[in-house]
Write a structure and sequence with these properties.
Mean pLDDT: 92
CATH architecture of the largest domain: 3-Layer(aba) Sandwich
CATH topology of the largest domain: Pyrimidine Nucleoside Phosphorylase, Chain A, domain 2
Helix content: 40-55%
Distance between the termini: 67 Å
Radius of gyration: 25 Å
Strand order of the largest sheet: 1-5-2-4-3-6
Shape: globular
Structural class: alpha/beta
Number of domains: 4
Length: 502
């Protein structure tokens, strides 16, 4: 059957989708989620179909194509494409096997991941795969196979360097921007650290969001390689270069379901490290009520698994378990966190000492893994001498930013409200979840200048009546109002076991 292309001007985020009018679908006995083969000239692809019941959206004789299909076929509005029936890919049957509790082979997992990258599996099929891995679990061989397949079916950064260092944090702690201290310290010590980081999904800022305040982060693989060759390090957005591309698609499925199959969590982290050919990796697992990993028992199991899988991947891994009960640093939100980083690197009197301490400690551990003698002393010297700041300036310049950016150049939200302690007492809890929520409602991370500045308070501190606790920043009055409403409803700071609001 020949049909005229209608550009739907919609992206799916990866899955190849075409829409047929119900009359044309009936002629071919096609139903929702069936597959068709599309051909245009010498180009050919397979797409999952949806069915339009309205002639206005897609009339008979036309086929609505989403952006991914248009790009694959190199077609435009009005072009004529040939369509035919297509069988389900073999990977669908492997997913069914996993649902039935069978362990998958290396080849079967690779077939699934290859089809994920090529957009051949529907959202429902991907959801079943995630669900099967969650309910049935994955053995060590499957996790290694999944990791290797994700790397194999994505872009890779190849560097003629050894060792190649990397780090990862399991997440959940606001302001924990240690990467932006670790990278310049480690790079200034002469070690290679090509750090690819994520943007925020549920937090007020990811490392990529924060670095973007100082320099572009959406770099090509070639650009990342160039930056690393010039400076020994980089801080780039991993999602912009298709490193571990399949993992990004699986994360989009996992996130709305709020499930994180342990096997997928392990392979997700290590695939990103393997994609940059990391040889030595430091993994930080913060534990606390509001972090992704809640208990020490969970953390210790992950530590054992990371170490085992790392050996199979010929990767040296060290896992540290750290407190995650309260924010680290003062700023929460891209611009506020970037300012904290510059405070530390320039040795400013306002620098957050908890962030500095953790960043230096982790940098020293990485240097020690790389065989650097007196690693702790060296990391401190690099920071205190200004070499770390100089190296960060080099990285910023190499990535296309202004290396001479000043603290005053970082734009913080123009609308602000400082919440002060209504009484004297002891701070007993700073709730990570609610602090994150308030900062996001204020506009972070989309509004770079939005977020929260916590005024040098920690759990266990005594605070006087009228002393500032936190300042909320927003780029619009309405968002500041929304954030204040949430603060009054759910608080975020507990003092003397009673919730402080206003």
């Amino acid at each position: 059957m020949k049909l005229k292309v209608k550009d739907m001007d919609i992206e799916t985020g990866g899955i190849l989708v075409a829409i047929l009018n119900e009359e044309d679908a009936h002629k071919l006995d096609l139903h929702h989620e069936d597959r068709i083969r599309l051909k245009f000239g010498r180009k050919e692809t397979t797409a999952v179909i949806d069915i339009a019941h309205s002639k206005k959206s897609v009339p008979p004789g036309k086929i609505g194509l989403f952006e991914e299909v248009l790009v694959k076929l190199n077609v435009k509005q009005g072009d004529i494409v040939d369509i035919d029936l297509a069988e389900k890919p073999a990977s669908v049957y492997y997913i069914k096997d996993k649902l039935e509790g069978k362990n998958l082979t290396k080849d079967e997992i690779n077939a699934i991941i290859k089809d994920v990258v090529m957009g051949k599996l529907s959202a429902i099929e991907l959801t079943y795969f995630v669900g099967a891995c969650y309910t049935e679990g994955m053995d060590m061989d499957e996790i290694v196979a999944l990791t290797e397949s994700i790397v194999k079916n994505g872009a890779q950064l190849r560097l003629d360097k050894h060792p190649v260092l990397d780090k990862h944090c399991s997440g959940g702690v606001p302001g924990n921007r240690t990467t932006m201290l670790i990278v310049p310290i480690v790079a200034a010590a002469g070690c290679t650290i090509p750090k690819t980081s994520s943007r925020s999904i549920t937090s007020p800022a990811g490392t990529a969001d924060t670095m973007e305040v100082l320099a572009p982060v959406a770099l090509s693989v070639e650009k990342i390689k160039s930056v690393v060759e010039k400076t020994n390090g980089c801080i780039a957005w991993g999602g912009g270069v298709n490193l571990a591309a399949a993992d990004d698609k699986l994360i989009r499925i996992r996130h709305p379901l709020s499930i994180d199959p342990e096997g997928m969590l392990l392979s997700s982290i290590l695939a990103k490290k393997a994609a940059v050919n990391a040889t030595h990796v430091l993994i930080d697992i913060p534990i606390g009520n509001d972090t992704k990993v809640k208990t020490k028992k969970q953390a210790l199991k992950l530590k054992r698994d990371f170490t085992k899988i790392g050996k199979k991947l010929k990767m040296k891994i060290r896992v540290i378990i750290t407190p995650g009960n309260q924010p680290i640093g003062n700023g929460i939100g891209p611009a506020l966190e970037a300012r904290d980083i510059l405070y530390v690197l320039t040795r400013h009197e306002k620098r957050p000492l908890d962030l500095e301490k953790k960043g230096v400690s982790m940098a020293a551990k990485l240097l020690k893994m790389a065989g650097i003698k007196n690693a702790e002393k060296k990391a401190v010297q690099i920071l205190e001498s200004g070499l770390a700041y100089k190296k960060m300036q080099e990285i910023i310049k190499a990535q296309g930013g202004n290396p001479d950016i000043k603290l005053k150049d970082i734009q913080i939200g123009k609308y602000e409200y400082t919440f002060k302690s209504p009484k004297a007492g002891i701070i007993t809890d700073i709730n990570n979840f609610t602090i994150n929520k308030i900062a996001r409602i204020a506009g972070a991370p989309k509004d770079k200048g939005a977020g929260i500045y916590i005024h040098n308070i920690n759990e266990g501190d005594f605070i006087r009546k009228g002393a500032p606790i936190m300042t909320i920043y927003a780029e619009s009055q309405i968002k500041l109002k929304y954030a204040l409403n949430v603060l009054k409803k759910i608080g975020g700071i507990v003092m003397d076991h009673r919730l402080i609001t206003s």
